[in-house]
Amino acid sequence: MAVDYAALKKGGFMRQKQKNNFSLRLRVVGGNVTAKQIAKVAEVAQKYGEGYVHLTSRQSIEIPFIKLDDIDEVKAALAEGGVEPGVCGPRVRTVTACQGSEICPSGCIDTYAIAKELDERYYARELPHKFKFGITGCQNNCLKAEENDLGIKGGIKVAWRESDCIHCGVCLKACRTKALTEQDGKIVLEPEKCNFCGRCVKSCPTESWDCTHGYIVSFGGIFGNQISKGEAIIPFIEDHDKLMAVCDAAIGFFKDNANPSERFKFTIDRVGYEQFEKAIKNAYYGEKEGE
Amino acid sequence: MAEFNIDERVDITDVVCPTTFVKAKVALEELDDGQVLSIRMNDGEPVQNVPRSIKEEGHQILKLNENDDGTYELIVRKVGD
Fold first, then answer.
1. Does residue A106 contact residue A202 with C-beta atoms inside 8 Å?
2. Tell me, what DSSP letter sits at residue A26?
3. Beta carbons of B37 and B29 less than 8 angstroms apart
4. Of A166, A169, A174, which is closest to B52 when you measure between CB atoms?
5. End-of-domain residue from the set A192, A221, A236
6. Would you say A29 and A93 are in contact if contact means Cβ atoms under 8 Å apart?
7. Per the omega criterion (within 30 degrees of 0), is the bond before A128 cis?
8. How far is A212 from chain B (nearest CA, A)?
9. Where are the domains of chain B?
10. Which residues 27-56 of B are in CB contact (within 8 Å) with A?
11. A76 shares a domain with A100
């Protein structure tokens, strides 16, 4: 029987140059892998591969040199350690994330929680072409949100609370966009200059800021044969459910409009940015206001 | 500044990140709980980042003053032994 390479690729088995050898991609969410999973991966790499793994550019693990005849056995062995094969091809790929606010002092959102949610919601969904999600916790952008088809960047919308301010002046210097000034004893924020980085909040000795944590969502990033930066449509999304509605709308637009093998950016370009913008605004504001 | 009684002073304008914070941290370690340190630092990265790092160490920031020569003076009260 002929080998169904497409089915193998869909199941995470990437054909190697070496005949009947596959590099097995694993399912990883938000870059976190448990010790138990690592132990099993090590065991499988030793027994069925060549004793090493490859870390992919998007936070996945691949085990090279898995033999065609061992595929079922390898899948069963990995399952014992709670490890699943990943995916390749025209579908939703590994959801990547930085460590986020649970670990990193700079983080503005819990990136791992969002990554898990997106993974459960979309992972491996069949689409006209690959579709990548990436989630970064703050403006430092360690996870490079805008190179993904859909990137999410955490931010904090701030409002000064006069009662707790000691007028130390630290926030005025911590702000990199010069959005803050002190005028007549009051801290004045120019909203159009604020990039939601939260540095004023993180540096404030008295926590004299009211904070709203939220998401900056970019669309149409691509960083392969062609390079283009994803762009935001809604400046700041505060509500978690609206974030999900916007993600649904983006992926729905791609599914409905893309030609086979056409990346999201080129679908948006071909169909028209205005039409895509309308779809996103409808999802965010509701049908009426978005029109 | 007259409004704070400065117990010690440290100048970190002669070093660059990450030594800026390290030097400030070492100076704070020399102090007792409640004593006040004045840290002289450069504009740019030091003044953007050092105050936050000191806050994250648990110390109390009192004031950031701009000096005439373009440097800054951060006044910090040590918290803890």
1. yes
2. B
3. no
4. A174
5. A236
6. no
7. no
8. 20
9. 8-77
10. 47-49, 51-52, 55-56
11. no
Residues A22 and A59 in one domain: yes
The reply to whether A63 falls in a domain is yes
Residue-wise pLDDT for A148-158, tens only, equals 999 999 999 99
CB distance A42 to A1 below 8 Å: no
Q: Which CATH architecture has domain B8-77?
A: 2-Layer Sandwich (3.30)
Instruction: Please report, for residues A57, A131, A157, the alpha-carbon distance to residue A25 in angstroms, rounded to integers and kept in the order given.
Output: 12, 16, 38
CATH assignment at residue A76: 3.30.70.3340
Measured in Å, how far apart are chain B's first and last C-alpha atoms?
A: 25
Task: Pick the residue from chain B with its C-alpha nearest to A204.
Answer: B52
Residues of B in contact with A168 (CB under 8 A): 61-64
DSSP helix/strand/coil, A210: strand
Q: Band the pLDDT of A1: cuts 50, 70, 90.
A: low
pLDDT band at A288 (very low <50, low <70, confident <90, very high): low
Classify residue B4 by burial, with Cβ atoms within 10 Å: 0-12, 13-18, 19+: middle
Count of A-B CB contacts under 8 Å = 40
Return the sign of the alpha-carbon dihedral for residues A208, A101, B51, A237: negative
The pLDDT tens digits for A27-45 are 999 999 999 999 999 999 9
Indicate the residue type of A272.
G
